[in-house]
Design goal:
This protein is an alpha+beta fold and 365 residues long. It has helices spanning 44-69, 93-109, 146-149, 157-169, 177-186, 205-224, 269-272, 276-290, 292-295, 307-314, 321-330, 346-351, and strands at residues 2-5, 24-26, 31-33, 79-82, 85-88, 125-128, 131-134, 138-140, 233-239, 243-251, 257-266, 299-304, 334-339. The termini are far apart.
Length: 365
């Protein structure tokens, strides 16, 4: 398989005379009109995707004509285009080279150029759109489960209950989870909520082994989950004093939550001094950047538990520069920002409050 990355993507598409007045900009020397498809325009992704798909479609058509002339059957799914990324897959090495020739010919004919540093040719496996693809399997990229892999042991009853919330969130996809979760459910039984943050968990070797097993089962469920283009996307985000986090998921036909990836990131010293609304905006921006490959060109419902953030995003007046820059980036995506109560945003809340550290550094009592 091979992956090609198009460089200066949008600038490959000419803007016709009738559309140029709609893409004008005002500067001090005077007004200007774009002759090429500009970055930042909300329709640029869709227009460029149609253009690149047309070029790849031509290559695929004449490649199949060549196969027909040689008495071989038609192949229809060996080319995959996603905006400026092109994936080419063949079972046979010689056929792969021939398909690459047709693709390169029509790319050159339509003046499409590639970034050679990001291109991968003739590989057995590679990363594409957040997934590792090989002949044997397709699984989630490491970065989407890193937040779970580095998750520390919950030190208090409240942290344990939040971790169990993540487990219950993915329970429909966890076979045999009850066997390993039984001891964890018994921890803190009868402890009132007001004392849960002060009551410590007494870890034993058996409890730690069960925790690792449960965590690995959740990681495997997320790694094996695949995106369904026919179902809507949902993103929940949250920010705390020292970290930001979120989860991207879909709902199955049975209304069961199918997680597509987790995100968690610690804040640096400067970011920890930000106000609450800026941290929430930072969490939203971080999650969108993390899952951009799925959010681009798709509608997504975003849940936040900070109501002022919803008002700022929906408002056209924003005077602070750092907010403008982040809102400008978010405006490129089709996001429906909705407010939910904090109690309904438990997973994102937990991911924004864990301090990522290696589990091996924590010893049992």
């Amino acid at each position: 398989m091979s992956k090609l990355d198009l460089t200066k993507g949008f600038y490959h598409v000419d803007v016709d005379e009738e559309s140029r007045p709609l893409l004008g900009i005002a500067t001090d020397p005077g007004g200007y009109r774009f002759r090429k498809l500009p970055m930042g325009w909300i329709n640029s992704r869709g227009v460029f995707s149609m253009s690149s798909s047309f070029v790849v479609g031509l290559a695929n058509y004449w490649y199949n004509k060549d196969r027909e002339a040689r008495g071989l059957p038609e192949v229809t799914q060996n080319f995959l285009v996603y905006i400026d990324d092109i994936l080419l897959v063949n079972d046979d090495e010689e056929e792969h080279k021939r398909a690459l020739y047709y693709l390169a010919y029509y790319m050159a004919r339509f003046h499409l150029t590639t970034n050679l540093k990001k291109c991968e040719l003739g590989k057995d496996s590679m990363k594409f759109l957040g997934k590792w693809i090989s002949k044997q399997e397709v699984h989630c990229a490491h970065k989407h489960i890193e937040a779970l892999q580095k998750m520390p042991l919950p030190m208090t009853i409240r942290e344990m209950r939040k971790f169990l919330g993540i487990v219950n969130f993915t329970r429909p996809f966890l076979t045999g989870i009850a066997e390993y979760q039984r001891r964890h459910n018994q921890i803190g039984a009868g402890v009132p909520r007001r004392l849960s943050n002060k009551t410590k968990v007494k870890w034993t070797k058996a409890l730690i082994q069960d925790f690792v097993k449960v965590r690995d089962m959740v990681m495997k469920a997320v790694a094996e989950s695949t995106y369904d283009g026919k179902k809507p996307l949902y993103l929940a985000t949250d920010g705390s004093d020292f970290a930001i986090g979120g989860i991207l998921y879909q709902l199955t036909d049975k209304k069961e939550v199918k997680p597509l990836g987790f995100f968690s990131k610690s804040l640096n010293d400067a970011q920890q001094s930000y106000g609450a609304i800026h941290k929430e905006l930072l969490a939203l921006e971080g999650c969108v950047k993390h899952f951009h490959y799925l959010l681009e060109g798709n509608h997504c419902t975003v849940y936040v538990d900070h109501k002022p953030l919803v008002n700022i995003i929906n408002s056209k007046n924003c005077k602070l520069r750092f907010r403008k820059l982040r809102l400008l980036y978010l405006s490129e995506f089709d996001l429906d920002i909705q407010h939910v109560d904090g109690i309904e945003n438990k997973i994102a809340d937990y991911l924004s409050r864990i301090k990522l550290r290696q589990l091996e550094k924590i010893e049992a009592n």
